[in-house]
Specification:
about 220 residues; 4-stranded antiparallel sheet; about 25% strand; DNA-binding
DNA sequence: ATCCTTCCGTTGTTGCAACAACATACGCGT
DNA sequence: ACGCGTATGTTGTTGCAACAACGGAAGGAT
């Protein structure tokens, strides 16, 4: 196993390469390879292990009752999946996890992660912190996006997003990490309609922008 | 402190009342009272403690750049708040936490929760599991809602939600936990438009429903 | 310089869903 | 029975945003 790679993933952040192998055995690590389109975890099953993508990537696929399906998420190299289900014993997955391509996955036992092992392995604490941090960060990301998409009008969604960005950057002038299409997808709106609305907002004096650099104009 | 109440919260689930007081001192528990509309945590600050609502309730309030604000969430008795920020050291809150009413909050130190204390207190493991489970459950709830509201058309949102409900109940016939207004809010659509769409879907033979009991009609 | 591609803005059309207003049904207390 | 309140369904209007189509600007490759 590639301990160098593993030690640089968010889950193992702060744990040195030399400590990895010991920790992996604590966690009952198992490595598996999947071919493209192979189903890694099927909806309806329940898991006690999380998956860490070592190479390749996987899709989170939701199957509807009427037969159609929808790719809901994508998990790339170094990211984890199924962690939310593994954290809730007995919880059944409502989606499939499918290999997008040739993919290697490292499975780690969640129970072992959460109970300090007999050897008193010092890095349990660290990995638990990382696990919780990952979960918390996902929560914040989802909450933010939920908040922005909650508004009905296109302008309100933009104002909500730009407000948050200004707060996060601590300045009314900032650069956003999206191009127009990505921003439109993020806010769940049409790109051209959004471009249109942005220029209207600029005409109305609410904002000024050039490419990805925005300035919010206060009422004062 | 009301150890009986505390032992019945999700965070302390599985920990007996007699064990609470010892654990609370491990966690550096501090109790504080707030008057209605008092700000408990202000946006921009960073926290190392989570809040457990002992009585009353709090609102999560987002302030926009242009002065307006919006109540984004509500945390009731027995629930926790600020846990996502406490799990990410140095992360600044993007929202205020405000007491809705006369409210008592128990603050618990996240760092103490995540590092096994010198006394080797056995219940750390349990509370960490609970914490992670709470976070995971919130993640799943947010993900579900995000998925449903991602669809553009009203019908697709309904189909997405109903599909998930059927899967979760393991049956094409099930009862939903929302009334029409609540479901409309959850899916971020207009109630009457949704009622209209539901009856169209019934006419089209996709579903059958009476009050909150729905049946999905497969194509077979 | 010339293609070509990608990104962004603009315009016009159209469809869908929000909105308002009302109708109906049901429960509940008296 | 009656009145009242709440929840839900129906209808018609209207506004907003999706969609399609296009034009221009910027960058790369040859």
């Amino acid at each position: 196993m590639n301990t160098f790679f593993i030690s640089n993933t968010p889950l193992f952040h702060g744990i040195s390469e030399s400590e990895i192998s010991e920790l992996l055995s604590c966690l009952g690590a198992k490595e598996r390879k999947y071919k493209k389109d192979e189903i890694i975890i099927r909806a309806g099953s329940s898991v006690s292990e999380i998956g860490l993508v070592e190479s390749g990537s996987v899709n989170i696929v939701v199957n509807f009752y009427w037969g159609n399906s929808h790719i809901f998420g994508h998990v790339g190299k170094g990211q984890v999946f199924a962690e939310n289900y593994a954290a809730i014993p007995g919880k059944e997955l409502l989606c499939d996890v499918v290999a997008c391509e040739e993919t290697e996955v490292l499975f780690l036992n969640m129970r072992n992660m959460l109970t300090t092992c007999q050897r008193g392995c010092a890095f349990h604490t660290r990995i638990i912190q990382n696990m919780l941090r990952i979960s918390a960060q996902k929560n914040l990301n989802l909450s933010s996006r939920m908040m922005h998409t909650a508004s009905k009008s296109l302008r309100e969604r933009l104002l909500s997003y730009l407000s948050e960005q200004a707060l996060e950057h601590g300045s009314s002038r900032f650069t956003i990490p999206f191009d127009r299409q990505q921003l439109a997808d993020y806010l769940a709106v049409d790109r051209s309609a959004m471009s249109n609305e942005l220029s209207k907002m600029q005409k109305d004096g609410l904002i000024t922008y050039h490419k990805n650099e925005f300035t919010l104009n206060g009422s004062t």
